[in-house]
Each structure stands twice: as structure tokens, then as C-alpha cells.
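Here comes my example:
=====
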Amino acid sequence: MAIKDISRNDLREIMKEAVTEVLTERKDLLEEAVSEAILDMKLGLAMEEADIGEYVSEESVLAKLKA
């Protein structure tokens, strides 16, 4: 396969077309990515809300896990 000289604009158009085609044909990929991002954001917000600044030592946690 021979490599042709492709201008920056031609490459940009080819990439746009490829991405558009994938997102059109495989909507599930975009839906899954957005869903995961929303879940990550919700988890982060829940963690911030629950953070009251009180921390337990590592030794205390490990002692309870071993018990």
C-alpha cells in the first residue's frame, strides 16, 4: 500500500468523517461513555458530601479488617 501525501485539512476531514460514522453506527459507545462519566461524577459528589474531615489511622483500619 502506497502512502500518499495528505494535506492537514484532508486528514482532518477524513478523521471527522470516521468519528462521525463510528458515533452514528455505534451509538452505544457514546451512551456508555456518557453513562460512566455521570456515574463517576455522582460518586465524586457523594464522596465530597460525606467528607467530614475526620480520619482514622491506617493501623485502626487494618486491625478491624484482621479481626
